[in-house]
């Protein structure tokens, strides 16, 4: 999907960073886009399963409720996905050392292998998208994006207090 800036009129972002960033997030987040990119890596699993694996790879062992909020789904969806991924040997449920009443989802060795492949697909995509960039351009973009992430995290931390 492409933004139709001519029809947007007074709607839409005016900040020169916001529109390309929002567009990139939209493209990267689209289920069809993620599925097409990661189909081989997922070994027949759904895009939703891939998202769970990716989040566990990013966060480490995580409580199901936190995972559900991060992905933007309900707890029953995570419970179902966790059971299916556990049946395939990709995740395991372990006691939360901070609270014996709670559990954590954790990648197994096989889950780490599949998740590593998902990250490789992402690395390959960025390499394709930036193939004509100089090393200096790539380094500069990485520095600016890191600053943006840091500022966003700080803002989120301030608002959650």
Topology:
Layout: H1 5-8, H2 18-29, H3 31-38, H4 47-59, H5 64-71, H6 75-87, E1 91-96, E2 99-107, H7 109-129, H8 135-159
Antiparallel strand pairs: 1-2
In short:
This protein has 161 residues and is mainly alpha-helical. The chain is 65% helix and 9% strand.
Q: Secondary-structure element order, as H and E?
A: HHHHHHEEHH
- The total count of strands amounts to 2
Terminal residue distance = 36 Å
Q: How much helicity do the residues have?
A: 55-70%
Low-confidence stretches: none
Content of β-strand: 5-15%
Largest sheet: 2 strands, antiparallel
In spatial order, strands of the major sheet run 1-2
Mean pLDDT: 88
Helix vs. strand class: mainly alpha
Number of distinct helices: 8
Rounded to the nearest angstrom, the radius of gyration is 18 Å
Characterize the structure shown.
It is a single chain. The mean pLDDT is 88. 65% of the residues lie in helices and 9% in strands. Strand 1 (91-96) and strand 2 (99-107) form a beta hairpin. The chain has eight helices and two strands, in the order H-H-H-H-H-H-E-E-H-H. The longest helix is centred in the last third of the chain and has 25 residues, at 135-159. The chain has helices at 5-8, 18-29, 31-38, 47-59, 64-71, 75-87, 109-129, 135-159, and strands at 91-96, 99-107. The chain is mainly α and 161 residues long. The protein has a two-stranded antiparallel sheet with strand order 1-2. It is globular.
